[in-house]
Design a protein that fits this description.
18 helices; 8-stranded mixed β-sheet; Rossmann fold; binds magnesium ion; globular; single chain; 5-stranded parallel β-sheet; 400 residues; binds adenosine-5'-diphosphate; alpha/beta
C-alpha cells in the first residue's frame, strides 16, 4: 500500500485520488493536511502549492526539516525557477507544474525506490532580512535594532545584526553595544573566518543577539570585498536563525546592493507623505529591474499617524503598486528616550503601541504568534524606574 500525504491549503483529495488511480497499479491511500508537521507514516509527501497565494519558497524552507528521511514531490501551478532550485537543493524527487502529464508523475514515482530521501543539511540556514530605504531618516536603524532585539529576546531566535550603514554605527549606539569588530575586520579574514572566530568577534547582547559594527575608518572600504562578504554570510548563515542588515540609503552603494540581493526579506522603510510615496514607487520599480524578486520587497510604513490630511494606507498601496507589509506607529518621545538610554523600545516601554508593533512585525517574519512571556517584560512597569534610568543613561554615556 502506497501511503501519500498531500500538504496543501486547498483540499484537493479527489484530484489526487483520480490521478493516482491513473498511474499507480497497486493500492494507495491519499490523506490531505494543511499543516506542515508530518506525523503519519508515509511513503510519499506531496507539497502542492497550486492556488496558494503564500510564498512557496518560504513555506518550503519552513517545512524542510520535517521532510528529512522522506520522499517528497513539489507541485505548483507556476513555473517558478526559484522554487524548482530550492526543491532540487532539498533533494525533492521531482517538480511538477500543473497541468502535468501522466508520464511525468509516473517517472517521478519510478524513482521512489532509488531516489535518496530528503537529507536536508542539518546546518542552520539563516533567513537574511535587509532593512533599507530610499532616503535617510525613515527608521531603518531603529527598526533593525528593535526587530533584532525582539527576535532574539521575545522569540528566542539566534540573531545577528550587521551594521552595513557606513560610518554612522547607529545600531550599536541604539543597543548600547561596543563593537568588537567591523564588517571590514571580518572580510579581511577571508577564508580563515570560521564559526569560532565569528562567535568571538561579534558583540553579544544577551544570549541570542550578536552585533557586527559598522565602519570606523576610510580604509575599511577597501577591505570589504564581495568574496569576503559571501564567505561571512556562508559562515553566519550556519550559526544564526536570522541575520538583520542595517543598510545605508544609497541605491548604488555596492555594500547595500550586496545585502539587497542576498535578502530573503527586504524591508523597505517609508514614511507617510506624498514625497515618500513617489520615491518608493520609483525605488520598488528600480529594485525589480535590478532583479529583486517582487515578493521579497516588503514595504513598512513608519511613523504612521492618523490626522486630518493623512493618507489612507489603501491609497499608498495603490500608488506604490505593492502590498504594505506592516505599519509602525509614530512615537517620537519613546524613540528619543530609548535612543538616549541605548535601550530598545520594547525594554523602555514594553506595553507601548510601538513595542507591540515590533513584536507583531517579528511575528510576521517568523510566521508565529507572539510567544507568551515567562515573567519578565509582561510584568514590567511600562517605563523604566528612576534609578534604572540613571543607570542606563550612565551606561550609554560611556559609549562616547
Ligand atoms: N516609529 C517612530 N516614531 C517616532 N520616531 C521614530 C520612529 N522610528 C524612528 N524614529 C526616529 O526617527 C529618526 C530617524 O530614525 P533612524 O532609525 O535613525 O532612521 P534611518 O536609519 O533610516 O536614517 C530617529 O530620531 C528615530 O528615533
Ligand atoms: Mg540609519
Amino acid at each position: 500500500m502506497l501511503k501519500v500525504v498531500v500538504i496543501s491549503q486547498v483540499n484537493d483529495t479527489k484530484f489526487w485520488q483520480d490521478t493516482f488511480s491513473n498511474v499507480w497499479e497497486g493500492q494507495f491511500e491519499i490523506s490531505h493536511q494543511n499543516t506542515h508537521q508530518i506525523n503519519k507514516e508515509t511513503d510519499l509527501v506531496i507539497l502542492d502549492f497550486s492556488n496558494d497565494q503564500t510564498n512557496a519558497i518560504d513555506v518550503l524552507t519552513d517545512v524542510s526539516q520535517n521532510l528529512v528521511g522522506k520522499h517528497f514531490l513539489i507541485v505548483s501551478d507556476k513555473k517558478d525557477a526559484d522554487l524548482a532550485i530550492e526543491a532540487i537543493r532539498l533533494t525533492a524527487m521531482g517538480f511538477l507544474v500543473r497541468p502535468f502529464k501522466r508520464f511525468e508523475l509516473i517517472s517521478c514515482l519510478d524513482r521512489l525506490n532509488t531516489a535518496p530521501a530528503g537529507h536536508i543539511n542539518s546546518k542552520r540556514k539563516a533567513r537574511i532580512i535587509t532593512i533599507t530605504s530610499y532616503k535617510g531618516g525613515t527608521g531603518v536603524s531603529t527598526t533593525t535594532a528593535n526587530l533584532g532585539y525582539t527576535l532574539s529576546q521575545i522569540y528566542q531566535k539566534k540573531t545577528l545584526v550587521i551594521d552595513a550603514a557606513g560610518f554612522s554605527n547607529h545600531v550599536t549606539v541604539l543597543l548600547n553595544a561596543i563593537p568588537k569588530c567591523t564588517l571590514a575586520d571580518l572580510c579581511k579574514q577571508g577564508k580563515n573566518l570560521d564559526e569560532g572566530y565569528l562567535s568571538n568577534a561579534v558583540s553579544p547582547i544577551g544570549k541570542n543577539l550578536g552585533i557586527i559594527g559598522g565602519l570606523t575608518k576610510t580604509s575599511d572600504f577597501s577591505d570589504i570585498t564581495t568574496e569576503g562578504l559571501e564567505h561571512l554570510m556562508e559562515i553566519a548563515g550556519e550559526a544564526y536563525d536570522y541575520i538583520l542588515v542595517d543598510t545605508s540609503t544609497h541605491l548604488l552603494d555596492e555594500i547595500s546592493m550586496f545585502f539587497i540581493q542576498k535578502a530573503n526579506d527586504l524591508l523597505l522603510l517609508t514614511t507617510f507623505d506624498l514625497l515618500a510615496i513617489r520615491d518608493n514607487r520609483f525605488y520598488i520599480q528600480t529594485l525589480k529591474e535590478l532583479g529583486v524578486l517582487e515578493h521579497r520587497i516588503k514595504p513598512i510604513i513608519n511613523r504612521q499617524d492618523w490626522y486630518i490630511g493623512s493618507i489612507e494606507p489603501q491609497l499608498i498601496q495603490k500608488q506604490i503598486n505593492h502590498t504594505i507589509f506592516h505599519s509602525l506607529p509614530n512615537d517620537w518621545n519613546l524613540c528619543v528616550e530609548a535612543t538616549n538610554y541605548g535601550r530598545p523600545v520594547i525594554e523602555v516601554s514594553p506595553n507601548s503601541q510601538l513595542a507591540t508593533s515590533f513584536k507583531i512585525l517579528a511575528g510576521k517574519i517568523t510566521k508565529t504568534d507572539i510567544p507568551e512571556q515567562s515573567g519578565s517584560s509582561n510584568q514590567q512597569p511600562d517605563t523604566l524606574q528612576a534609578e534604572d534610568r540613571k543607570e542606563k543613561k550612565k551606561s550609554i554615556l560611556n559609549w562616547f
